[in-house]
Design goal:
Blueprint (H helix, E strand, L loop, with lengths): L21 E3 L5 E3 H6 L13 E2 L5 H4 L14 H8 L1
Length: about 80
């Protein structure tokens, strides 16, 4: 079951469960499209993997399988710089 993390690990932008801006790698590292394209060059800074669009969980399933509330932030230098800018 996907965690559906609530934010971009790079810029900390909110990524609600129905966001079409959320991208994930095979380890569920979660980033927004803008950071994937403009900061990370399409490569996960944590595992080196590729990104794919995060699937949208049907609204009726969010009650039984809620998204994660835990915010995760990358400590990679390019992401720290993106949060400061």
């Amino acid at each position: 079951m996907l965690e559906l993390r609530p934010n971009c690990e790079c810029c900390d932008k909110d990524l609600p469960p129905d966001s079409r801006q959320a991208m994930i790698c095979t380890f569920e590292c979660t980033f927004c499209v803008d950071c994937v394209d403009n900061v990370l060059g399409g490569k996960c800074p944590n595992c080196g993997g590729e990104f794919v669009p995060r699937p949208i969980r049907p609204a009726e399933m969010l009650v039984k399988y809620p998204p994660s509330e835990k915010r995760v932030l990358s400590s990679k230098s390019n992401c720290v710089e993106a949060r400061v800018a």
